[in-house]
Here is the input.
Amino acid sequence: MLDLIRTKLRELPAEHHQPEHRENLREAAVLLAVTRADEPSVVFIKRAEHLNSHSGQVAFPGGMWEPGDKSLLHTALRESEEEIALPPGKVDVIATLPTRSTIFGVRVIPYVGLIPAGLDFVPEPGELDAVFEVPLSYLGDPGNLTRTRFEMRGGEFDVPCYLYKGFCIWGFTLGVLAEFLDHCLDVSLDLQYRQCG
Here is the structure.
């Protein structure tokens, strides 16, 4: 499966994107890390419940660009090391997925990297409640995509998500994941939000 992923992502090479430094533009980068295992999995984090922003949400390792970062790829690798103790030297970055923007206007570049199986991740206790992996075979089965309800933007919405061992993967993170699955495994997910009531 990893050979297939490499082949499919060949047209999206890993690039050392530089921040645009436009006024009022906030920029970030995340790492979609896939384990080199007989049963490859994708690494996710769960943000700490006590945080003011995105508390309790599932995400990919990564974060905001800082002035000392050499590129946005450097941002993704630095943040991954800080958040889950993933050494940058263990990451074989193979692709850059299309840039996406969050609902808060943050421009995010997602990178795809292959990492060794069995690494001992250590969640940064001030930021994270957990680090966990989900088998790619589970994510690649559209039948495992379900729906749940969230209060947001002044209303209640029925939204697509993966529920895995008590974790809920939805929103921006699911959008990045769906792009990856579509590109690599020809899996198309229904990401439509439906307003309730």
Remarks:
- The first helix runs from residue 2 to 8.
- The CA atoms of residues 134 and 164 lie 7 Å apart.
- The radius of gyration is 16 Å.
